[in-house]
Write a structure and sequence with these properties.
By secondary structure, the chain is of the alpha/beta class. It contains 13 helices and six strands. The protein has a six-stranded parallel β-sheet, with helices on both faces. Helix 1 runs antiparallel to helix 3, helix 3 packs parallel to helix 6 and helix 7 crosses helix 13.
């Protein structure tokens, strides 16, 4: 436990360092820098709550290390609680990170750590309702850098690259780790609206592999999603945590779609590799497309004028 608390303190120092060095990046506009700085106190507050849960024995992130090392002796008769956060992450932004840490900090949450599962490419038909716009490799790399400072609290898994979401959890949890497991799936209320009818059957399928599985849901309210009353009216038979959107105070309703359209750095955790990769892979290509479109339109208009 003492080591875990020291790790959280180290994570806090890294987070503070990222924000304190933000002024060194000349390509970050002043207005964007001010927006990014708003995330700092929220992240530190969430990390403090997670540290308190570790101190109280309610969160044990070091278990992920034993799992990754396949240390069966240490894991024998151990119960592991893991949060699963899947999505397209195109691109991963600050609210994704805040949702992860907010889940771990929540008093109702029992997760020891979070596994992030970026969806496969659209041509694999994994997520036909929300196809990704950019390659898996790019989105996974952005996620890797975004969570790099957060040690054992967050892990990136590539198991979903070629698997459907529920099969990915099967492979990740049941087959590979073979321990008593509590799964909490983290999603927005818009996703819950689409998939809630399929979840009970998926849980039954998992229990064919192991009867030791406990399944929970942690739903964050989002625009276009179900209201609390609508979710409660379903009579969902599985444990359900519902968190209001106001959890992130003045951050606003940020989505990956908004980030792609706005192509602003103000939506990101200030890890330099995240900012650089977003500029190179999202900002420049869009500006080139826009410039090309203007050039084509200008050329077409000039030709039309001569006809």
């Amino acid at each position: 436990m003492r080591d875990a608390i020291l790790q959280i303190n180290d994570i806090r120092r890294k987070v503070i360092g990222r924000f304190d060095t933000l002024s060194q990046f000349q390509y970050v506009k002043e207005e964007d820098r001010k927006s990014i700085l708003l995330y700092k106190p929220i992240l530190l507050e969430l990390l403090s709550k997670i540290r308190d849960k570790i101190r109280d024995g309610k969160c044990k992130p070091w278990k992920v290390l034993n799992l990754e090392e396949k240390n069966k002796k240490k894991m024998e008769n151990t119960k592991v609680s893991v949060g699963i956060f899947g999505g397209s992450f195109d691109p991963p932004h600050i609210v994704h990170l805040l949702r992860i840490l907010s889940h771990l900090a929540n008093d109702e949450s029992r997760s020891d750590f979070i596994v992030v599962l970026p969806s496969a490419n659209p041509d694999t038909q994994i997520d036909p309702l929300r196809p990704s716009k950019n390659p898996y490799e790019l989105r996974a790399k952005l996620l890797k850098f975004m969570i790099a400072d957060f040690g054992p609290l967050i892990r990136l898994s590539n198991v979903r690259k070629n698997n459907q979401f529920h099969h990915a959890i099967e492979n990740l949890i049941i087959i590979n780790w073979e321990v008593k497991i509590s799964i909490t799936q983290i999603m927005g209320s818009d996703n819950f609206k689409r998939v809630h009818k399929k979840i009970p059957q998926a849980v039954k399928d998992w229990k064919k592999f192991s009867k030791n599985i406990i399944y929970r849901l942690h739903v964050f309210q989002r625009a276009g999603g179900m209201s609390v009353d609508e979710m409660n009216a379903i009579g969902f038979q599985l444990p359900l945590i519902i968190e209001p959107p106001l959890s992130f105070r003045n951050i606003g309703n940020i989505s990956s779609t908004l980030v792609r359209e706005d192509i602003s750095l103000k939506y990101f955790y200030p890890h330099p590799e995240v900012l650089n990769l977003f500029i190179g892979s999202y900002v420049y290509p869009k500006k080139i497309r826009q410039a090309t479109l203007l050039e084509v339109n200008s050329f077409s208009n000039s030709k039309m004028g001569k006809l």
